[in-house]
Design goal:
about 375 residues; alpha/beta; Cytosolic phospholipase A2 catalytic domain; eight-stranded mixed beta sheet; 13 helices; 8 strands; about 10% strand
Length: about 375
């Protein structure tokens, strides 16, 4: 039987476009047989398939809490929630801070209003500022490798999920793009950290290569830095896929613009090269693999207002909330038109799109603090 796949591309600041769209998909009961990801899209895909809380929609909605309160961001435009200081001493500090009952109380109240969110973000900024670090001129990257990952993803649930999950990472030692698959039991915290190790932001991630029979360790960079849209996993492993829904938040020319300041110029230096890579990925796929029209590409178009493009890469909470709403509404329009024939839960593959109640795998409610607020890292120490 023909399968349906979802491709989630890279892009971190505008990742809430994707989480908003997936929330609308989940409400409508859309199901995918395959989810293929790259870069920050891997994190969104994992929250969709295997959130630690068990509540898919709450996990996706809480990605807005990655954003920093506007009152802080206007003065200090850095996302200290996502990008945290590296080093073993920093990991220990975060563990101690996270056990602080005062901070726990602030985090638990962060969802009750704008003032409470501001207080929580200020407290986190204070603790992040005092965090010690071993960062110096010999360091290979600025930040710790996604120290909150195990707090938000249930990897055991992913292994048990019916959908196959793929993520790519660039194998530096062997110099090739390597795909990891949940069907082969390769998706874990290490492979995700490898897949998110964007150069300069994060050091190359070292882990055991699942393909090595001797357990040899290799170094990896983020896959999206080389291949923003992971068509390769479908071409090589999923030949029975017919429809491919594509989330591409980077392949938009409108992201190319004049910077507002030096920090914005640095951010654009990361994003601008990825824009053309993302655009070329689909062109190459169509030219090399889909001339006969075997696959039906269904790109979701995100309708960002012209006035909002300049701030679309900001990490402010207002921007992330706005992008989530744009993604949600764009997906609803897509499902009413090009995506109307996508398979739904409990319906035949060709059934008409009938929205179903929101999916909740558990009754547990995910708090805002469960996503990016954790400062602790109980394991090893990504997301452009």
């Amino acid at each position: 039987m023909a399968k349906t796949a979802l491709i989630i591309g890279g892009g971190a600041p505008n990742a809430t476009l994707m989480s908003g769209a997936l929330t609308a998909f989940d409400e409508a009961g859309v199901e995918f047989d395959v989810v293929s990801t790259a870069g920050a899209g891997a994190l969104i895909g994992l929250l969709y398939l295997a959130p630690a809380s068990g509540d898919v929609q709450a996990a996706l909605r809480s990605t807005v809490e990655m954003g920093v309160s506007d009152a802080i961001y206007e003065r200090y435009p850095v996302n200290y929630k996502v990008f945290q200081k590296p080093g073993a001493v920093a990991d220990l500090y975060r563990s101690l801070v996270q056990a602080n009952p005062f901070l726990q109380t602030i985090q638990k109240s962060a969802g009750t209003g704008a003032a409470d969110k501001l207080v929580a973000d200020l407290a986190q900024l204070m603790f992040a500022s005092f965090c010690p670090t071993t960062l110096d001129g010999k360091s290979l990257g600025l930040c710790a490798a996604v120290p909150f990952l195990e707090h938000i993803v249930d990897f055991a649930a992913l292994d048990a999920h019916r959908a196959r999950f793929y993520v790519n990472a660039y194998n530096i030692d062997d110099r090739y793009m390597q795909n990891f698959s949940s069907a082969r039991g390769e998706i874990n915290a290490d492979t995700i950290r490898a897949a998110l190790a964007f150069p300069f932001l994060y050091p190359p991630y070292r882990m055991k290569d699942p393909k090595s029979k001797t357990g040899e360790e290799k170094f990896y960079y983020e896959g999206a830095a080389h291949d923003c849209l992971n068509y390769k996993s479908l071409v090589e492993n999923e030949r029975s896929v017919r429809d491919i829904v594509v989330f591409d938040v980077l392949g938009a020319e409108k992201l190319m613009r004049k910077p507002r300041d030096l920090y914005d110029a640095w951010l654009l230096s990361i994003i601008v090269p990825l824009i053309e890579i993302a655009r070329d990925d689909t062109k190459i796929f169509q030219e090399r693999h889909n001339r006969a029209g075997k696959w039906n590409l269904l790109p979701v178009k995100f309708d960002i207002a012209a006035k909002d493009w300049e701030t679309s890469l900001d990490w402010s909470r207002s921007n992330l909330a706005r992008l989530f709403d744009v993604g949600y509404r764009s997906a609803q329009r897509f499902l009413a038109d090009e995506g109307a024939a996508l398979p739904r839960r409990g319906k035949a593959e060709t059934a008409a799109p009938v929205p179903t109640p929101a999916r909740r795998r558990k009754s547990t409610r995910m708090r805002n603090a469960d996503l990016v607020v954790p400062l602790a890292d109980d394991s090893s120490s990504d997301a452009a």
